# Entry
Amino acid sequence: RYLAPPRPIGMGRLLTARLIVGGLLCHGFAEGAERRFPDPEVLASLRYFTQSWREHYNSGDAEYCGSAYVEDAPVLLRLGPAAPDIEKLTGWKDPHLVRGTAAIKLFWNETFAVLGLRNLQEETSGLESTELVIDDDTIVVGRSFTFDQVRGRVSSEMWVRVGQEWKLRSSIFEILDQMAPIVGPAPASTPQANSPVSAPSPAATPAAAAPAPPAALTTAEARSSHTGLMIVLLAISGLVTALCLHRNRRRKQAIIAGFEEMLG
# Structure
């Protein structure tokens, strides 16, 4: 009697199995731990932190991305088909492992600034995403992701609650497919050196300047002009007065002389 060959295990089931086994091993089969929140509420409290991490990465904020991990967290990246391009630009070997927030900050900075991996998108629903709540303070996540040049999956990503925040305890990534060469960030566009410069249109040229109107006299100039005019008027008035006095004196002398002749 022959046994039927085993049925192949789908990638989604395999990923789910890995997450379950890994979560149980990490937490020592903590079945009896008292729970305060139901699973949906625990998952909902994580949403903001996962979305915020993705937005900060796409803006190039490697400082934030590295600070989202606990101090001694490890990050493992399997380079897959992108290994030749990545090794050429960064010198990383496959697989590439970093540990600690300082090294993780450098890792995400090189991913963005050296490799030029941009536009990170993550599948957060459907068969490509798995979220396992271990307890109120621990969640293991698996999902697919894409950049402009590559796509892959998060094999396992553990989040732990630290105070009022969720922090990354560990991450395992794997690149599955390369859609475009990884050549680093695109250079900034610069104007061509020999590009002709177009002459300004007549409408853009300023019109000929009209002659400026005569400037108004300043207060000092006006006062000086007024003073000079007064001096001239006073001089003319003095001259007229002197002439009048001289004529009156001559008339008076003529009258006196006439009386003296009459008196004899």
Q: What stands out?
A: The radius of gyration is 48 Å.
